[in-house]
Amino acid sequence: MSYINRYLRNFKPYAVASHKIWQADEAERKEILKLDWNESTMNPSPKVKERLKELLEQDFLNFYPATYNETLHSLLSEYVELPQKNVQYFASSDSLHEYIAKMFITVGDPVLILWPSYDNFRLTAQVAGAHVMFYELNDNFEFDKQAFENKIYHKEPSLVYMCNPNNPTGLMLSKEYIEFLLREFPDTMFLIDEAYIEFSGGSCKELVKDYDNILISRTMSKAFGLANIRFGYLLASEENIRYISSIRNPKNITTFAQESVIGALSDIEYMRDYVARVNEAREYFTDHINREYKNVFHAYPSDTNFVLIRCSSLLVKKEILTYLERHNIFVRNVNQSENVKDCIRVTIGTKEQMEYVIKLFGEYIKGVERYQS
User: Which residue has the higher pLDDT, 310 or 22?
Assistant: First the structure.
């Protein structure tokens, strides 16, 4: 124990969800509906597989990946509608967060997280030696601007982490409000995690051209369906891009990842069509849960590819998780804070997939009613 970094001696690990899909063979995997990690429930654009097939015809595995890919950088810049000087890519947004912690967090720095949130960043900040604090939403997941601002005033965090739209609540803060925070607290760095931005719109990306105290992390894991290839990117001022690039390991983004992203970015319409289908299915699913099963479940509004559902009791939560898993459907057991202890998070797939999930919710309720009668 004495050899371990003292900041890690009593830390709480990031709790991963069940990943039983990798314990199944290919045939069994097709029978599983994985709705626990907010991945796409469909394959990415066919252009991804086309590029990978072409890639496998080449001999390159004995070489390190290209450390700079002009085609990739240009496509990212075009997609986000920002100059290349405001964009840098990494081997996943998690990896990017680790670089941000190295560059912008000093041991002992106060770091504030809008909570509940993506818990892996909490761990990343603690590993960097930060004193992590939380601003917690209330039990209805309402955001109190005045209370949040007071927390920043009094605690003076060096960095504030905000998942926007929020994971797991689906909460979305406006670009106008985030710009207000940038002006109000010029000595605080704001890290805005836009992992789910394609499902909502309202990105803060334009702010990086005018403010040095904002970093925006993005991922290809959600709307683009490339979770397995591990690719993320940063939007920031030219100066901040230069700073973080100076410590970035440029050979950590595999050739497979680079070519996959090029394929996906060459077919933006495929992604937009998928997002439209998910958003339609999300509203259908939310409406049905709240209309048909409101005495047992409540689904919160969401600007993402998932819906947070509050169960009427902890017993119901336990039972519905078990019932769905028995039918090869995996959803997320959220528990990172007290106000979500009776909640589950359901990734949204296509309307057809969500109709099946709704059917199982109904069958569960009917089973409970028969048992109680």
Answer: 310
* Residue 63: how many other CB atoms lie within 10 Å: 9
Q: What angle do CA 363, 367, 373 make, to 5 degrees?
A: 145
- Binned at pLDDT 50, 70 and 90, residue 373 comes out as very low
pTM: 0.94
Residue 73: count other Cβ atoms within 10 Å of its Cβ.
16
**DSSP state at residue 202:** -
Does 9 have pLDDT greater than 70?
Answer: no
Residue pair 85/222 in contact by the 8 Å Cβ criterion: no
CA atoms within 13 A of residue 84's CA, in its CB half-sphere? 8
User: Which residues, listed in sequence order, are joined to residue 216 by a DSSP beta bridge?
Assistant: 192, 235
In sequence order, which ranges of the chain are alpha helices (DSSP H)?
A: 26-29, 46-56, 70-80, 93-104, 119-127, 145-155, 175-184, 238-245, 255-265, 268-292, 314-326, 351-372
Quote the CA–CA distance of 248 and 92 in Å, as a whole number: 12
